[in-house]
Write a structure and sequence with these properties.
The complex is a heterodimer of chains A (272) and B (318). Chain A is α/β, with parallel strands linked by helices. Chain A is built from eleven helices and twelve strands. In chain A, 35% of the residues lie in helices and 27% in strands. Chain A has a six-stranded mixed beta sheet with strand order 6-7-8-3-9-10, with helices on both faces. Chain A has a four-stranded antiparallel beta sheet with strand order 2-1-4-5, with helices on one face. A two-stranded antiparallel ribbon of chain A has the order 11-12. The longest helix of chain A has 17 residues. The radius of gyration of chain A is 19 Å and the shape is globular. The mean pLDDT of chain A is 89. Chain B is mainly alpha-helical and 318 residues long. Chain B is built from 13 helices and two strands, in the order H-H-H-H-H-H-E-E-H-H-H-H-H-H-H. In chain B, strands 1-2 form a two-stranded antiparallel sheet. In chain B, helix 3 crosses helix 11 and helix 8 packs across helix 10. Chain B is globular and about 65 Å long. The termini of chain B are far apart. The interface between A and B is medium-sized, with 34 and 25 residues.
């Protein structure tokens, strides 16, 4: 079982500032750390900077004309500034992007195979990896011959996670896995994330808007608002925190409130 | 009534009446079709991998042919010249990636298209400066391709097969089979298709766009070289050769911009179609049908099947 106190930090983001197109300041000093073997949740609303944080770690930022202007990110003690996304994948960090981004015109199996692009392996090892993914996602095995573009949203999300898994990652940066999925499917996906975390020992950094589910599965969490970390702590504490309850879980101190009451914020956000 | 007979009866009567002429036309159409297909193939490769309509593709054909001849004239043996041209194209692909594509990653398709327009004029200028602009003849004989023709008696008449045409068809088929296998079976081929689908996602799984682009431009260069040799052998090699690029456009529209087999089938349809139309229906419409037939068909495709015969399915989830 994951024990936060004794776990070593694999990923350390220290006070980073990110600017897009040399002008738009998106992150204003974000610091966080991800422990080996843990699930770390990154929470916040639209435009809080969750995706940007993940992209600055996977180094996908550069191709979107974004840049880390201050602060530093290190993975296993190495500063990642000069690496490209392929280097990061080789080091064991892979991002599953928001909105799945499967290769629509490739079959599900071909999608999975592209995940192993950076690995130098023979075909039997490749088969073993495929087998592993299919065991976690039996549905993908059924759909392996169909074009990814024709599969359902849930299957595409599985395909995207499976594809990442094919690179034998140490850490997966998972961006909004719940997006556009039915609640039941969201649970299903998170269950698999939990299994991957426990059985394959993959660490997760998970960006989510669905605070409720994310805090249920995560070991610890950070809450981002307008490009800043405003709160952090073990998932259990965050779940109990009255502010989180009110602003992110939609519950007031007296229990669930009605729409009428929540229309205007009664409680001032204490951290601002 | 005369018109209807002219359209529906006379041509077919002629086909049956003179079968040797029919087969000759079919063969001629087939050969020019494969060559159209080859040019289209160069466009398809780059379009697939980078979503760019590469305006410079026809000029690459001219460049390949000119460079090949120039190396040979300098005294380099013919096949070594081919290798030199390939090396040159690899260097060119690398330079294009470094100086243009890398800077323009994730910009609008039109910007990339305009950059290939600029590129084609830069290549024209540079090629004229280095290799000179005078028309010269191709060195296919020196490369060992047979010349002359064989006559195959058929239906009382005879059909002529140019040996060079036969080699062109064989080489084209080989090239296409190899490319098809490359795309569907190899890791890099899969990577190429992944990049074509979604740049960002390809980056995220660790596919290096830079490497893929160099490879794809190089492969497009190889296709350009093959095209250059066989088109060059049919007419002189000069900058006028780039006009054939315009023939590739309708081929692309018919076959689909993203399909390797589409380029070939489209090429054959245009090649055979325009020959048949010219010979059998041409007299009815005045001559010169060959010039516009391809565009006429392409227009029909744009209206009714815009992704072409084999283009990527337009995926819509409902």
């Amino acid at each position: 079982m994951f024990d936060e106190k004794s776990a070593e930090t694999v990923l350390d983001v220290s006070n980073i500032e990110v600017v897009y197109n040399n002008i738009i300041l998106v992150l204003r000093g974000v610091s966080l750390s991800v422990e080996k073997g843990g699930i770390t949740a990154l929470l916040g609303g639209n435009g809080a900077g969750k995706s940007t944080t993940l992209k600055s770690i996977s180094n996908l930022l550069k191709s979107e004309r974004g840049e880390v202007t201050k602060g530093s990110i290190s993975y296993n003690g190495k500063n990642i500034k000069e690496f490209n996304p392929a280097d990061m994948v080789k080091m064991g960090v892979i991002q599953v992007m928001e909105g799945r981004h499967c290769f629509e015109h490739l079959t599900v199996e071909e999608n999975l195979l592209t995940g192993a692009y950076t690995r130098k392996i023979n075909s039997s090892e490749l088969k073993d990896s495929l087998e592993l993914v299919y065991n976690y996602f039996p549905r993908l095995r059924e759909r392996r011959k169909s074009l990814a573009g024709y599969t359902s949203g849930g299957e595409q999300q599985m395909c995207a996670i499976g594809r990442a898994l094919m690179s034998t990652p140490e850490t997966i940066l998972l961006d909004e896995p719940s997006m556009g999925l039915a609640p039941q499917l969201v649970e299903e996906i998170f269950e698999i994330v939990k299994q991957l975390n426990e059985k394959e020992n993959v660490s997760f950094l998970l960006a989510e808007q669905n605070t409720n589910v994310a805090l249920k599965y995560a070991h610890k969490g950070y809450i981002l608002e307008s490009g800043r970390v405003v709160m952090d702590g073990p998932a259990k504490e965050l779940r109990e925190n009255p502010d989180v309850k009110e602003f992110y879980l939609g519950m007031s101190e007296e229990g669930r409130s009605s729409f009428k009451e929540t229309r205007s914020y009664r409680r001032r956000k204490r951290w601002l | 009534m005369d018109l209807l007979t002219g359209i529906f009866i006379t041509p077919f009567a002629e086909m049956i009446g003179l079968p040797d002429l029919f087969f000759q036309a079919l063969w001629d159409g087939f050969v020019s079709g494969t060559l159209y297909g080859l040019i289209a193939l160069g466009f398809v490769l780059i379009f697939k991998a980078s979503g760019v309509f590469n305006f410079a593709q026809p000029i690459l054909v001219v460049l390949a042919a000119l460079a090949l001849i120039s190396f040979y004239k300098m005294g380099v043996p013919a096949w070594i010249s081919v290798v030199l041209v390939l090396i040159m194209f690899y260097a060119l692909a690398w330079l294009i990636e470094r100086l243009i594509l890398r800077k323009l990653v994730n910009t609008d398709g039109n910007i990339l298209f305009m950059s290939t327009v600029a590129l084609s004029f830069i290549i024209i200028g540079a090629a004229q400066w280095i290799f000179g602009g005078r028309p010269s003849s191709m060195i296919h004989k020196e490369l060992g391709f047979p010349v002359g023709s064989v006559e195959w008696p058929m239906f009382g008449g005879g059909v002529y097969f140019e040996l060079l045409d036969i080699s062109a068809a064989v080489v084209a088929v080989l090239l296409i089979v190899c490319l098809g296998l490359f795309f569907s079976r190899t890791k890099i081929g899969r990577g190429l298709r992944a990049v074509a689908d979604d740049h960002q996602a390809a980056l995220s799984v660790g596919i290096s766009l830079n490497q893929i682009w160099v490879i794809v431009w190089f492969v497009a260069g190889v296709v350009a070289l093959v095209t250059g040799i066989f088109w060059g052998a049919r007419s002189d090699v000069s900058f006028a050769l780039q006009i054939i690029g315009f023939k590739a456009l309708p081929v692309l529209i018919i076959g689909g911009f993203t399909s390797v087999p589409g380029a070939i089938v489209g090429g054959l349809m245009i090649g055979i179609g325009e020959k048949m139309f010219e010979i059998y229906w041409g007299p009815l419409l005045g001559s010169g049908v060959e010039g516009w037939f391809a565009y006429f068909i392409a227009l029909g495709f744009l209206l009714f099947k815009p992704q072409g015969l084999f283009g990527d399915k337009i995926i819509e989830r409902v």
